[in-house]
């Protein structure tokens, strides 16, 4: 078993199933529960594997325990080995490979995360740990600052919305942020600045914004809140300079994936 072998199989999976965006979301929601503010604890530990309670039942994680892990199951069966590569490590590596396959930056992956043994090792709730799409910058800061992220990091991480789409049966929102949901670039930031959006309500009753130009793309309230200063200046920078976005994204993303972890190693 080698990282190269696992990476090759991940690339084949992403290209065949076009499942890169949901793999990024899987890693993000696994690691993103970490907090060091009023709420403490949380780490990437693959607790979503368990659906009898905890993170596997969080509304924010809808679609991950069944759809994402269903795609990943053959690689889980083939590679996950205690002491070598955990489920949480595989989720991390898969997200990073998916990002690069879709045209995004190469992201280094370290190994050594410990898997949860049961749902009891989940955090208590998604509230205060994972962001809500229908809230603004104060909420984003309340969520991300206790994880050790700056305003610049918030904008960079928001750029992951350049891939994927919202599904009404999962988040309640519906639609893609960009024209090509499987290309990782800086289109998200260009859309925020260049398109005009108007209010609409999803079929599940959730408030969101649709492109007035009829492209079918959307933004969430949290996305357009990045037009407020000082976030807007960073959005403008990333829209004009994709390399700057990629550099900052890698830095913030690796931090997200390693929050709450100790003793990570550079190789299997």
Task: Give the N-terminus to C-terminus distance in angstroms.
Answer: 9 Å
Q: Regions with pLDDT < 50 over 5+ consecutive residues?
A: none
Strand order of the largest sheet: 5-6-7
Alpha plus pi helix count: 10
Order of helices and strands: HHEEHHHHEEHEEEHHH
Q: How large is the share of residues in beta strands?
A: 5-15%
Number of strand segments = 7
**Helix percent band:** 40-55%
Q: What is the SS-derived class?
A: mainly alpha
Rg value: 18 Å
Gross geometry: globular
The main sheet comes to:
3 strands, antiparallel
Per-chain topology:
Elements: H1 3-17, H2 20-31, E1 35-36, E2 40-41, H3 64-79, H4 87-101, H5 137-144, H6 151-158, E3 165-166, E4 175-176, H7 187-194, E5 197-201, E6 207-211, E7 218-219, H8 221-224, H9 231-240, H10 242-258
Antiparallel strand pairs: 1-2, 3-4, 5-6, 6-7
Question: What does this protein structure show overall?
Answer:
With 268 residues, the chain is mostly helical. The protein is 42% helix and 7% strand. It has ten helices and seven strands. It has a three-stranded antiparallel beta sheet with strand order 5-6-7. The chain has a two-stranded antiparallel sheet with strand order 1-2. Helix 6 packs across helix 9 (231-240). The chain starts with a helix and ends in a 10-residue tail after the last helix.
Summarize this structure briefly.
42% of the residues lie in helices and 7% in strands.
């Amino acid at each position: 078993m080698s990282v190269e072998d696992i990476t090759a199989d991940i690339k084949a999976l992403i290209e065949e199933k076009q499942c890169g965006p949901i793999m990024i979301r899987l890693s993000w929601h696994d690691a993103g529960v970490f907090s060091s503010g009023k709420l403490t604890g949380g780490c990437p530990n693959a607790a979503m594997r368990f659906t009898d309670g905890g993170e596997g039942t969080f509304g924010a994680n809808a679609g991950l325990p069944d759809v994402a892990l269903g795609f990943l199951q053959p690689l889980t069966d083939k590679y996950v080995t205690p002491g070598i590569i955990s489920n949480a490590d595989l989720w991390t590596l898969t997200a990073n490979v998916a990002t690069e396959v879709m045209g995004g930056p190469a992201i280094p992956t370290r190994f050594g995360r410990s898997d949860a043994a049961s749902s009891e090792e989940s955090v208590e709730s998604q509230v205060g740990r994972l962001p809500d799409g229908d809230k603004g910058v104060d909420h984003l800061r309340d969520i991300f600052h206790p994880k050790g992220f700056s305003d610049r990091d918030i904008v960079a991480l928001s750029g992951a919305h350049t891939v994927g789409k919202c599904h009404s049966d999962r988040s309640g929102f519906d639609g893609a942020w960009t024209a090509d949901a499987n290309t990782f670039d800086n289109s998200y930031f260009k859309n925020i600045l260049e398109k005009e959006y108007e209010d609409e309500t999803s079929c599940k009753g959730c408030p969101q914004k649709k492109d007035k130009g009829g492209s079918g793309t959307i933004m969430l309230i949290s996305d357009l809140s990045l037009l407020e200063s000082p976030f807007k200046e960073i959005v403008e920078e990333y829209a004009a300079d994709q390399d700057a976005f990629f550099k900052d994204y890698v830095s913030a993303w690796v931090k997200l994936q390693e929050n709450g972890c100790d003793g990570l190693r550079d190789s299997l």
